[in-house]
Specification:
The protein contains eleven helices and 16 strands. It is of the alpha/beta class.
Length: 296
């Protein structure tokens, strides 16, 4: 998946034969079962959701750990149990998150360096990170998400040492360009793997025009996927599929397969993503094929 905007205009027919790497974000940290009963908490529940997602057509699962009561967890043993339970069930590619608020960088990455997942999510800049309720006229949550250049460098060095592929998560336009000094230092090398998170309050709005702008900035030969938040998920997936990109769905980002129709599992969301992929003549990549495409 190395197309850029220029190549799309020159060879549009090449789009329709390309495979799509579908990622499923299984649980996140913010949502709970009062909002969506299908959100998994325990290692076994998360692993079962990984299996459902993989069987539905996802090649990658993006994982945050939870305590059994649903609270976010950064405990190494919890991540280890999730990885072991997932490996018992399927050969899906595992992507562990390093995202957190008010958690030391060393704790945010320990499960990546100790357990060596194939991919580690790496946030590429600091930002305000919030959710606002128009009906209540107040913020549901309102955080400052710190990812300084020193923090990014620390994560890149740790991932490189352990052979973990960094997934460069970009919540805003400037985050894409933040990779440049690390390329110059030799701390990261092509092919790069970008994720464009769109629709978070504090980050870039979820529009096809903004997605096009993000894609135009990345180095030639890079892989990229879109992550549309909440009700904008399906519109952004549609845009990414038409532009040659990869896609992410999952209960971390969105609960609904259609307006008013809540997913009963992550598998429901992946099934819709697969249908959309095939509707435009593309095919979901298997985990084995995704490893080849991404160079893992």
């Amino acid at each position: 998946m190395s197309l850029n905007i220029q190549s799309l205009s020159q060879k549009p027919e090449a789009l329709l034969s390309e495979e799509v790497v579908i990622t499923c974000a299984l649980t996140g940290v913010a949502a709970n079962r009062d909002q969506c009963p299908a959100i998994p908490y325990t290692p076994v529940e998360i692993a079962e959701e990984a299996r459902r997602a993989c069987e539905a057509g996802a090649a990658v699962v993006h994982i945050h750990a939870r305590e059994d009561d649903g609270r976010p967890s950064h405990r190494l043993n919890v991540y280890r149990a999730i990885l072991e339970e997932t490996r018992k069930r399927c050969d899906v590619i595992v992507n562990f998150s390093t995202g957190a608020v008010d958690v030391p960088p060393e704790e945010r990455i320990k499960h990546v360096t100790e357990l060596d997942p194939e991919i580690g999510a790496l946030n590429m800049g600091s930002m305000n990170y919030a959710k606002y309720s128009k009906s209540r006229k107040e913020f549901v949550f309102n955080w400052v998400f710190e990812n300084s250049f020193d923090t990014i460098r620390f994560y890149l060095e740790a991932m490189s040492k352990n052979g973990v592929r960094p997934e460069l998560e970009c919540f805003d336009t400037g985050h894409v360009h933040n990779v440049q000094p690390f390329l110059d230092m030799g701390l990261i090398a092509p092919p790069l793997q970008f994720s464009f998170i769109m629709g978070v309050l504090g980050g870039i709005p979820a529009t096809a025009k903004n997605l096009s702008n993000q894609v135009e900035q990345i180095p030639n030969g890079s892989h990229w996927e879109v992550i549309g938040i909440s009700h904008m998920q399906w519109a952004m997936i549609s845009a990414a599929l038409s532009m040659g990109g990869n896609i992410r769905v999952g209960l971390e980002d969105n609960f609904y397969v259609a307006p008013g129709v809540m997913a009963e599992s992550n598998g429901d969301l992946v099934e819709k993503a697969v249908r959309m992929t095939r509707d435009i003549g593309r095919e979901p990549a298997s985990p084995a094929r995704a490893r080849e495409i991404l160079g893992l």
